[in-house]
Amino acid sequence: MPSIDHPSIKEEQKPARRWIRRLRLGAVMRVFVIAVITLALLEISINIWINHFADKQTFQQFATFDDVLERYLLRFKEHPYLNYMNAPKYKKNGTRHDKRGYRGPRFSKHKAPGAFRIVAIGGSTTYTEFVDDDRDTYPAQLQKRLRKLGYAKIEVINAGAPGYTSWESLINLEFRVLDLEPDMVINYDALNDVHARLVDPDHYRGDNTGYRRQWKIPRPPCYEQVATVRVLLRLLGRSKTATDLHDLTTRTDTYRYKNRAPTPKAEILKRNLPTYFERNLKSMIAVAKINNVQIMFATFAYHPKKNDYLNADCYRKGIAEHNQIIRNLAAEYNVPVFDFAAKMPTLTCPKCWHDGRHVSKKGAALQGKLFADFIDQQDLIPRESPSEEQETDDL
Q1: pLDDT (average), residues 176-191
Q2: What is the pLDDT, as a whole number, of residue 394?
Q3: Looking at residues 196-224, what average pLDDT do you find?
Q4: Rounded to an integer, what distance in angstroms lies between the CA atom of residue 359 and that of residue 160?
Q5: Strand, coil or helix: what is 284?
Q6: Dist. CA 141–CA 128, nearest whole Å
Q7: pLDDT recorded at residue 16
Q8: Is the pLDDT of residue 291 over 70?
C-alpha cells in the first residue's frame, strides 16, 4: 500500500484541497459580505434614529457638529465686537430675523415721523427663547399692549440675543442699537452675569475674558462622519462636539451651570464681586443719556420651583445681588426701574414659565402687559390720542 506521501496519492488530494480552499474563501467572503451589510444597516439605522427620533439632548450628544450647527446654531454668526450676533435672515417655524439680525418683522432703520421707538436689549429672556412665534415674544406683546393703551405710533424692536451678558448688551447698545434711533432702551440683564462671575478668581477681569472666548467653530476628525464610530466614541467619552452656543463662545474651565468648582460656588461669588455688572450698567446709562435716549431697567424674575440650575443657592444669591444693584443705580441716577421680579407671578402661574428662567407663550404675554402698564403708569412715553385703528396687533 503506497504511503500518503506517494506522488499518486498527492495528485489525488489536489482537487480536494482546492475544493476546501474554495469553501474557506467562500465562507470568508460570505462573512465579509454579511459584516458589510450589517454595518451598513447599523449605520443607516443609527442615522435615522439620531436625525428623526432622538430627542434634543440625544441628538446633540450623538449627531455630527454640522448637523447640530444646522439645526440649532445657524441662527448665530460671528461678530467682530460682540463676538456673535443673531444671524440675519434666519427663518425657522415662526421665528424670523430681519436683515440686521433682529428678531421679528422687518422695520425701517429710520423712524417714521412721530413714531416712538423702544428697543429691548438683553439675553435669551429678551429674545424670548422657547417661544416660537415672533408675534408672541415679550417685546412684541409689549408693543401690542402699548398700542391698546393708546400709543398708536409705538414701535418695539427685539434686540435681545441668547447668551448675552451685560458686556454684550453694552456693546450692542453702543455699536448697533443707537443706529436704530431709539427713544427708549429697556435693559433686562442679570442671570448671565452670574455665569460670568463663576470663574477662577484669577481670571475674573473687566474684559470678561475669564468667561468669554472668541467665536470658534470646531472641526471634528473625518472619521466622525461615520455614525457607528462617532456614537461609540461618544459613549466611551473619547469624543465630544459643540452642542450649544456656549461651546462656541464660552471658556471650557468656567464653573457655570452644574460644572464642578474647586471651592463652593458661593465662596467664588464672594471673591468675584459684581463690580463689572454695576460698571456696565453705569456705562449704559451714560451712553443712553449722552445720546438723548431714555433708558429703563428691570429686575430679573425667575421661577424658584422649576427643575432648573437656578435652584442652586449661588445663582439665587447672584441674581439677588444684581437686582439690588439695578435698584440702587436706578435711584442714584434717576432711571426708571420696573421691579419685574416682584410683579411676575411664579407659584401662582406655573404655566407662565417654560423653565426656571424663560417664560412660556402665556408668560411672555403677561410680561409684555406688565412692562407696558408700568411704562404707562410712569408716563415714560408722550401721550397720544387713542386710535382705534391701531388697537389691534399689526405685527
Answers
A1: 98
A2: 46
A3: 92
A4: 14
A5: helix
A6: 11
A7: 64
A8: yes
Query: Residue for cell digits 439632548?
Result: 57
Do 62 and 50 form a contact (C-beta atoms < 8 A)? yes
Reported residue count of the chain is 395
Place of cell 460671528: 78
pLDDT tens-digit series, residues 85-116: 999 999 999 999 999 999 999 999 999 999 99
Cell of 51: 436625525
Residue 12: per-residue pLDDT: 58
- Residues forming beta bridges with residue 86, ordered by sequence position: 76
Residue of 225, 192, 231 whose CA lies nearest to 322: 192
Cβ–Cβ < 8 Å for 296, 186: yes
Q: What does DSSP assign to residue 50?
A: I
Question: What are 197's three cell numbers?
Answer: 462671575
Question: Quick check: 196 pLDDT over 50?
Answer: yes
> Where do the structural domains in the chain lie, given as residue ranges?
7-53, 88-212+252-382
3-state secondary structure of 81: coil
Considering only 8-12, 70-74, 101-105, 319-323, which range has the smallest mean pLDDT?
8-12
DSSP code at position 5: T
CA distance 360 to 363: 5
What average pLDDT does range 67-95 have in this prediction?
Answer: 90
How far is 76 from 160, CA to CA, in rounded Å?
Answer: 12
Where in 260-305 does DSSP place strands (E)? 294-298
**What CATH fold (topology level) applies to the domain 88-212+252-382?**
Rossmann fold (3.40.50)
Q: Kindly report, residue by residue over 314-326, the tens digit of the pLDDT.
A: 999 999 999 999 9
| Cell digits of residue 20 | 476546501
CA separation (Å) from 87 to 77, 103, 188, 192?
A: 5, 10, 21, 21
Hey, how many other C-beta atoms are within 10 angstroms of the C-beta on 18? 10
Distance CA 27, CA 20 (A): 10
DSSP string, 100-153: TS-BSS---SSPPTT-EEEEEEESHHHHTTT---GGGSHHHHHHHHHHHTT-TT
Query: If DSSP codes are grouped into helix, strand and coil, which group holds residue 89?
Result: coil
In sequence order, what are the residues at sequence separation of 6 or more whose Cβ sits closer than 8 angstroms to the Cβ of residue 323?
190, 299, 300, 341
CA distances from 163 to 83, 111, 126, 282 (A): 11, 28, 10, 21
The answer to whether 268 touches 261, Cβ cutoff 8 Å, is yes
pLDDT of residue 7: 60
Instruction: Calculate the average pLDDT of the chain.
Output: 90
